[in-house]
């Protein structure tokens, strides 16, 4: 295989198992990407990510552009060396930050977005060319095209304009210079409007990218409608290229998009929950601040092989959390990422073995029978 090749090794219904070749190694899909927005997966070291089985991590163009600056990272050898991660990296283009930080945006037009920096309030301008330049300087393995993400409640006119502009920006992103070996993924928008999704997919696939992302979902719409939209959109994308759902990290959601043909996904949920004192467990989560765990000598999850469950009790981790000990937040973050990474790895094995539906049924039964 050469850089950019994507090989499907198994299918089970709509679910797929594949291999993506990048400049920094092979990624086996389906795959969960821990989010390292500012060149760090919060509270974890790169060596710990490797031990957990992470294959690829995500960085963010918007934030790294402002702090410390893409030129600084480039001068120091690129993002891989800067953060001491030798595996593949995907960088978000900053388009989602334009959406999520829309209160800072002064103007969105065909050329780009003018907004106030969340760091110092200064006026800044993002264009497709700048987003791709920053990602080239970072040297990520996968760069995302600049796009316009919309809220779930926009008008049809606003949605159509965002779809049109996303295609315009995708053309310019695709034409921009890239780092050696860098892949570029296009992003399909359209909210839950299938006609707009079809139009956007035709535009983005027509331009031609190394992979395709399903953007503009998990932004407030109902879960069932989101999954229906994912299924429809996946069917509009080339089967021979990887598909990436932007922003999902709960067990039901992950398995739902895998079942509908998605290969890659990311989310801040596992580490964010860890930093707020919650542990992911079959069927949901535990709030370790709850007093009922004060004398609980059991692990977070029976049979879990992560360092938190292997060596410590719920009572001890609760003690760390309630006393604001950083090690407690680290242990929960490690545990939560382990749960998600192992879930997706298990899904891949099930797809290869042709038992994905049974795998889901067994997980549902385990969750229903779990005593937390």
Describe this structure in words.
By secondary structure, this protein is α/β, with parallel strands linked by helices. The protein has 2 domains: 237 residues, Alpha-Beta Barrel (TIM Barrel), CATH 3.20.20; 96 residues, no CATH class. Helix 11 runs antiparallel to helix 14 and helix 13 packs across helix 14. The mean pLDDT is 96.
Evaluate the radius of gyration: 20 Å
Helix content: 40-55%
> CATH topology of the largest domain, what is it called?
TIM Barrel
CATH class of the largest domain: Alpha Beta
Strand content: 15-25%
Précis, in short:
The protein is an alpha/beta fold and 372 residues long.
Which properties best describe this structure?
alpha/beta, TIM Barrel, 2 domains, eight-stranded parallel β-sheet
Task: Summarize the helices and strands and which ones pair or pack.
Elements: E1 6-12, E2 15-22, E3 25-29, E4 31-34, H1 46-52, E5 57-60, H2 61-66, H3 70-75, H4 79-83, E6 89-92, H5 95-100, E7 105-109, E8 112-116, E9 123-126, H6 128-138, E10 142-144, H7 156-175, E11 183-188, H8 194-207, E12 211-214, H9 223-234, E13 243-246, H10 251-259, E14 264-267, H11 269-275, E15 278-281, E16 284-287, H12 307-311, H13 314-322, H14 326-352, H15 356-369
Parallel strand pairs: 4-14, 5-6, 6-10, 10-11, 11-12, 12-13, 13-14
Antiparallel strand pairs: 1-2, 2-3, 7-8, 8-9, 15-16
Helix pairs in contact: 6-7, 7-8, 10-14, 11-14, 13-14, 14-15
């Amino acid at each position: 295989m050469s850089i950019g090749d994507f090989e499907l090794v198994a299918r089970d219904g709509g679910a797929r198992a594949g291999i993506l070749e990048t400049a920094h190694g092979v990624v086996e899909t389906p795959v969960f990407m821990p989010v390292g927005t500012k060149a760090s997966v919060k509270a974890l070291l790169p060596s710990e990510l490797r031990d957990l089985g992470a294959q690829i991590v995500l960085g963010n163009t918007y934030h790294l552009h402002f702090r410390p600056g893409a030129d600084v990272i480039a001068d120091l050898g690129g993002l891989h060396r800067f953060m001491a991660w030798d595996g593949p990296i995907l960088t978000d283009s900053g388009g989602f930050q334009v959406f999520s930080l829309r209160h800072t945006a002064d103007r969105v037009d065909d050329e780009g977005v003018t907004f106030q920096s969340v760091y110092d309030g200064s006026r800044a301008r993002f264009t497709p060319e700048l987003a791709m330049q920053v990602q080239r300087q970072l040297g990520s393995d996968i760069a995302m095209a600049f796009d316009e993400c919309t809220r779930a409640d926009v008008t049809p006119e606003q949605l159509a304009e965002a779809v049109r502009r996303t295609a315009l920006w995708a053309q310019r992103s695709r034409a921009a210079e890239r780092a050696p070996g860098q892949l570029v993924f296009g992003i399909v928008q359209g909210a839950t409007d299938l006609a707009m999704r079809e139009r956007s997919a035709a535009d983005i696939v027509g331009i031609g990218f190394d992979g395709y992302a399903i953007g503009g979902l998990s932004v407030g719409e109902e879960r069932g409608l989101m999954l229906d939209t994912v299924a429809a959109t996946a069917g509009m994308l080339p089967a021979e290229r990887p598909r990436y759902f932007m922003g999902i990290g709960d067990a039901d959601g992950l398995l739902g998009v895998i079942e509908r043909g998605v290969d890659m996904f990311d989310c801040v949920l596992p580490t964010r929950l860890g930093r707020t004192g919650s542990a992911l467990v079959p069927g949901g989560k535990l709030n370790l601040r709850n007093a009922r765990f004060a004398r609980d000598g059991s692990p977070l999850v029976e049979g879990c092989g992560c360092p938190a469950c292997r060596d410590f009790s719920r009572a001890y981790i609760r003690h760390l959390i309630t006393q604001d000990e950083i090690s407690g937040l680290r242990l929960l973050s490690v545990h939560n990422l382990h749960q998600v990474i192992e879930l997706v790895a298990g899904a891949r094995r099930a797809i290869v073995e042709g038992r994905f539906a049974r795998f889901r049924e067994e997980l549902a039964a385990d969750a229903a029978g779990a005593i937390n």
